[in-house]
Amino acid sequence: MTLMNIADGAAHDLQIRDVHVAGAGEAEAQAPLRLRAVTLTLSPGEWIYIAGTNGSGKSTLARMLAGLSMEGVSGAIDRGFAGEYPAPYVMQQPDAQLFGETPREEIMFALEWMELKADEIDRRTAETLSRTGLGRVADVPWDRLSGGQRQLAAIAAAVAAEAPMLVLDEATSMLDDQTRAIASELIRERHAAGSAIVWVTQRLDELMPEQRVLAIKDGELSFDGRARDFFYGWDEASGVSPCEASGLQPSYLMRLALAMRTEGLMQDPLPMTEAEWREVVNL
Ligand SMILES: Nc1ncnc2c1ncn2[C@@H]1O[C@H](COP(=O)(O)OP(=O)(O)OP(=O)(O)O)[C@@H](O)[C@H]1O
């Protein structure tokens, strides 16, 4: 792997160029590639979604963007604004990623990385516990907490670290609506404060029209652009939308919009959000 050397030293883009990640456990020549010829740029403070079918390579790409060590990587990676330390990376299952024994410890450990003074760590920990509703279970060990509470603590700790980038790998998909809303709010605030967010999702209804989507298919970047173009654009090679070409199913309403465009009953820009649909059907 080549580490690119860009002179400005300031908060420049994270760039990966022609990166391959080999599979493991088979003879080198036959090992299936987990990622193939991936080239992309991520700017400071950007929010990107990574979408793709099961096993397409989403987590491999997310872990690479987070700067986690990985076998078999070749190509050029410049971590730019994300810095030399790995970004906080939250997975779907909380247990493998918890360092502390309780929510309070988990958040304190994240803050200790920032080399803050002890009273500042205590203050920020108390504030995070209170905001997330974890205050009343702050010192309860993990085995007496629910999976949702453990996951919320993992997300709160990742956010508390105020890192330049945060990587969430289907991190909210197992949460109930109320806990997901708390977690989403924390993440949105961190983004507003300047952190880049990399969000792996299978929930296509989370995507807003102007948001950037990276789609992965069989280890290759099959799309990099705005969500509206992902759902309603045209993939030359397959003659369907980039979403469908990536093996993903658009929502019923999106399929309806696509069918109506084919019949000449609807024109671009096709509606995506509830507000846009209301406008189109004059509600
Ligand atoms: N540590 C590893 N070593 C070798 N191959 C791996 C490793 N982890 C995953 N793979 C393989 O790499 C491919 C991509 O896996 P990855 O977990 O990145 O996909 P994904 O899109 O995140 O899948 P899912 O949605 O199921 O989580 C899969 O074929 C998987 O079996």
TrEMBL record:
GO terms for molecular function: ATP binding; ATP hydrolysis activity; ATPase-coupled transmembrane transporter activity. Its main location: membrane. Residues 14-243 form the ABC transporter domain. GO terms for cellular component: ATP-binding cassette (ABC) transporter complex. It is a peripheral membrane protein. It is found in: Cell membrane. SUPFAM superfamilies: P-loop containing nucleoside triphosphate hydrolases (SSF52540). SMART domains: AAA. Coiled coil: none annotated. Keywords: ATP-binding, Cell membrane, Membrane, Nucleotide-binding, Translocase, Transport. This is Energy-coupling factor transport system ATP-binding protein/energy-coupling factor transport system ATP-binding protein.
